[in-house]
Write a structure and sequence with these properties.
This protein has 2 domains: 135 residues, Up-down Bundle (Ferritin), CATH 1.20.1260.30; 256 residues, Rossmann fold. It has 18 helices and 10 strands. Strands 3-2-1-4-5-7-6-8-10-9 form a 10-stranded mixed sheet, sandwiched between helices.
Length: 501
C-alpha cells in the first residue's frame, strides 16, 4: 500500500464518526488497532519459530480472524462489528489470564488493553479504518521499515494532541543523547518514564551499529527496560518496540516512584539511564516517603533525579533532561540532590537547551545533565566530580524558535558534538558566556547554583501566565538565597553579630 497518505486516510474516515472527539482520541483509537495488527504479525513469526507456540488471545479475538476482509462479504461490519469489538474483543483482552509465570510477550496484551478505549460509534467507518490498517504488509521488510517511519509521525502528532504532548521528546534530542552515552553490547539501558519509547528506540538504533554476532543480537534484544505510568503512551511504546524487532519488550505499566529507593539491588540497576522525567507535577506524601528524608521533594522531576542516582550501576552513565528550575532551585531537597551529584557522581557536563524545543506543549527551558557513577580522576577529596562544563546551545541561524513546522533536527545538535570533543570556554564579545568550566568546589561555593551560561534576556521565551509566575517565584527564591548567603559571608568576615529580631 501507499504509506505516504496512511495517516491522512484514517483521519479522513474518523472525522465522520461522532464518537471521535479531537486528535487525542483519534490517535488512541488508531493505537490499539495498530498494536493488534503488529502483534498479529509477530505471532506469525513466533508460530514458525516455536513448535509449541500458543497465542494468549482466544482465536476469535485474534486480528487475523476478525479484522481481515477477504472480499467474500462475510467480514464483520456495521452493528455486528461494533457489537463484537465493544462486547467481546475489549472485555476478553482486558481479562486475559496473566500471572507471574506468563511470558512478557504474552502478558503485554492484557497490560496494553487494561485502560484502552474504543471510541468509534459507526461500525461501517470502523470497518473502513480496520481495512486501511490491515493493508499494511508488515511481513515485508521494506514496508515494515517504512511503516516504522510512519509510526514516528503518529508519535510526533501527539505533541499537539492535548496533554499527550508530554510523552514525546524530539527524536533529534533522543538520538543525540544516545549517541553521546556511546552504547556498548552487553549493557542494559533504562528509562523510568519512557512514554512512547523514544529514548529506547534511539538507544537501539545506536547499539545496532555494534551488533556483529548472534550473541550480540541476544544482548541487543535484552538491553532495554522501561516503565510508563500512563496507559496510552505505554501502549504506543510496546507497539513501537515490537515494530523495532524486540519480541519481548521489558516495558511495564507502573509508577516508578512507589518503591523505596534504598531497597534496590544491583540486579535492579542499569549501566545507562536515558530520560526526560515528567516535570511540573507534584507527588503525594506517601510517594515522597520512599525517598531519603533530605531529598523528599514535592516536584516529580526532583524525585526522578533521586531515583536515577539510586538505580545507576557503578561506573554507569546517565543523560537526563531537567527543567531550569532544577538548576537554580534552592529549596532543601534540590540542594541535597545537587550536592549528592557533585559528591557521589561525576557531573561532567550540563547542556543548556533553547526554551522552544518542546513547543507547542511547553516553553519551559530545559537542560541535559550528563553524569557517571564514578570518581573523576583528580577530583578533590570529598567529591566525585572534578569539574563541570556548561555549554549553551543557541538557536540555529535563521530560527527565532522551534515549532511544529520547524522542529529541532539532527544537524542542530552538531555544534554540541563539535564542542564536546574539543572543550573550551567560549565568551562572546559582549561578555556573554556560552561555555565555561567550574570545579566542584566552585559550584559548592555557589551553593550549587547550576544556572550558568544562561541565555541572553532578549532570547527568553514568553511563558504562559501560570508557568511564568512559577518561574518568577523560583528565581526570586534563588536570588533571596544568594543575597542571604553573601550577607552572611560579609558578616562572618567582619566578625559582626547582628540581632535582627
Amino acid at each position: 500500500m501507499s504509506l505516504s497518505n496512511f495517516v491522512k486516510r484514517i483521519r479522513n474516515i474518523m472525522r465522520n464518526d461522532a464518537g471521535i472527539n479531537g486528535d487525542a482520541q483519534r490517535i488512541e483509537q488508531i493505537a490499539w488497532m495498530l498494536f493488534l495488527k503488529v502483534y498479529d504479525e509477530k505471532e506469525k513469526d513466533w508460530e514458525m519459530d516455536e513448535d509449541d507456540y500458543t497465542s494468549i488471545i482466544p482465536e476469535q479475538c485474534r486480528w487475523q480472524n476478525w479484522a481481515k476482509d477477504d472480499g467474500s462479504g462475510n467480514a464483520l461490519t456495521a452493528d455486528k462489528l461494533l457489537d463484537f469489538v465493544n462486547n467481546t474483543l475489549f472485555p476478553t483482552l482486558k481479562e486475559l489470564p496473566v500471572d507471574h509465570k506468563t511470558p512478557i510477550k504474552k502478558a503485554i496484551v492484557r497490560t496494553t488493553f487494561d485502560d484502552a478505549n474504543q471510541y468509534m460509534k459507526d461500525g461501517v467507518l470502523l470497518r473502513q479504518v480496520v481495512n486501511v490498517i490491515d493493508e499494511l504488509d508488515l511481513s515485508n521488510y521494506e514496508e515494515s521499515h517504512a511503516f516504522g517511519e510512519i509510526y514516528e509521525t503518529i508519535l510526533k502528532e501527539m505533541q499537539s494532541a492535548g496533554s499527550s504532548g508530554e510523552f514525546y521528546t524530539p527524536r533529534a534530542l533522543t538520538d543525540f543523547m544516545a549517541k553521546t552515552v556511546n552504547p556498548q553490547v552487553g549493557e542494559r539501558m533504562a528509562d523510568f518514564a519512557c512514554g512512547t519509547g523514544g529514548f529506547i528506540v534511539s538507544w537501539l538504533k545506536e547499539l545496532d551499529k555494534k551488533v556483529e554476532t548472534g550473541a550480540d543480537r541476544d544482548s541487543y534484544n535484552a538491553s532495554v527496560y522501561g516503565i510508563e505510568k500512563k496507559q496510552f503512551p505505554y501502549m504506543l511504546c510496546v507497539t513501537n518496540l515490537l515494530l523495532h524487532g524486540i519480541d519481548m519488550p521489558q516495558i511495564y505499566h507502573d509508577n516508578s516512584l512507589t518503591k523505596d529507593v534504598l531497597n534496590y539491588s544491583d540486579d535492579e540497576r542499569f549501566n545507562v539511564i536515558l530520560m526526560n522525567p515528567p516535570y511540573g507535577g507534584n507527588e503525594k506524601t506517601d510517594v515522597k516517603s520512599h525517598f531519603p528524608s533530605d531529598m523528599r521533594s514535592s516536584e516529580t522531576a526532583d524525585l526522578f533525579m533521586v531515583l536515577i542516582m539510586y538505580r545507576l550501576l557503578e561506573k554507569g552513565r546517565a543523560a537526563v533532561i531537567v527543567p531550569d528550575g532544577f538548576l537554580f532551585g534552592v529549596d532543601g531537597a534540590k540542594l541535597a540532590i545537587k550536592t549528592k551529584l557533585l559528591r557521589d557522581f561525576n557531573l561532567h557536563t550540563i547542556i543548556r537547551l533553547p526554551g522552544s524545543i518542546f513547543a507547542p506543549y511547553t516553553s519551559i527551558a530545559t537542560n541535559i545533565l550528563f553524569f557517571n557513577r564514578e570518581k573523576a580522576e583528580g577530583a578533590a577529596e570529598g567529591f566525585s566530580t572534578k569539574e563541570t562544563w556548561f555549554y549553551r546551545l543557541d538557536m540555529p541561524e535563521g530560527y527565532k524558535h522551534f515549532s511544529k513546522t520547524k522542529p529541532m533536527r539532527e544537524e542542530h545538535c552538531a555544534p554540541i558534538l563539535e564542542w564536546w570533543n574539543n572543550r573550551k570556554a567560549i565568551i562572546n564579545s559582549d561578555s556573554d558566556e556560552k561555555a565555561k568550566c567550574f570545579s566542584a568546589e566552585e559550584l559548592m561555593d555557589l551553593d550549587c547554583n547550576f544556572d550558568q551560561c544562561k541565555f541572553p534576556k532578549d532570547e527568553e521565551e514568553i511563558l504562559p501566565p501560570a508557568e511564568l509566575l512559577a518561574s518568577y517565584y523560583k528565581k526570586r527564591a534563588a536570588l533571596d538565597h544568594e543575597i542571604d548567603r553573601t550577607l552572611s559571608e560579609i558578616q562572618r568576615i567582619l566578625g559582626i553579630e547582628l540581632n535582627l529580631e
